[in-house]
Amino acid sequence: MKINAIDIKPGNVLEQNGKLWLVLKRELIQPGKGGAFAQVEMRDMKSGIKTNERYRTQETVERVQLEDKEMQFLYFEGDFANFMDNESFEQLQVERPLIGEPADFLQEGMICTIKLYEGQALGVELPQSVIVTVVEADPVVKGQTASSSYKPGKLDNGRRVMIPPHIEAGTRIVVSTADGSYIERAKD
Q1: Backbone angles phi, psi at 64, to 5 degrees
Q2: CA distance 38 to 3
């Protein structure tokens, strides 16, 4: 589907020179002299290489429509995450680097959104937050206040995160899957 460069939005996938590019940022620039243009920061969906492109606002680009499919995470097999389509029961393997750091938070049975292009996985979206258990928490340093400082803690998935001083080992907490940051204590 062809669109004007002025209509490019972050999250769009563009096809250029036989490669698929994920749009990360788009800025419209109107210089004092000459025509306006769109400055677009993109990442190659396969290699992860970033690039910046400039398009005249009326220039057309090829936008790719991705299919979003909800699938259930089953297990890791080496460097591959295995997902299952709950409708057809077909299984799909996705490389861990394609998922990125959020792969640490995948839990058995978790429903994720897989972005597909012609049957091939290009990305995985996890739920925004996940409940995990703190297995190790550093002791509170005297003089620390709850509002201003955090201490390191280790989660049951092996990931290290910063947690408030009142959280102890064995506590279940909610963390963001995007960056691993503490959100709140889990409600039991």
Answers
A1: -100, 135
A2: 13
In which element (H, E) is residue 71 found? Answer: strand 67-77
Long-range contacts of 160-165 (CB under 8 A, 24+ apart): 163/134, 163/137, 165/140, 165/141
Q: pLDDT by residue (tens digit) across 28-50? A: 888 888 888 888 898 887 777 88
Could you read off the pLDDT of 51-86 as tens digits, one per residue? Answer: 898 888 888 888 888 888 899 999 989 888 899 988
pLDDT, tens digit (0-9, with 9 covering 90-100), for 146-161: 556 788 888 888 888 8
Query: Long-range contacts of range 119-126, CB-CB < 8 Å, 24 or more positions apart?
Result: 121/92, 121/94, 122/13, 122/20, 122/45, 122/66, 122/98, 123/22, 123/45, 123/98, 123/99, 124/81, 124/83, 124/94, 124/98, 124/99, 126/99, 126/102, 126/177
- Is pLDDT of 119 > 60? yes
Pick the closest to residue 46 from 66, 23, 20 (CA basis): 20
Which residue blocks in 24-115 are alpha helix, DSSP H?
A: 96-99
Q: Which amino acid does the sequence have at 40?
A: V
Look at the chain and count its residues. Answer: 188
CA 141 to chain centre: 34
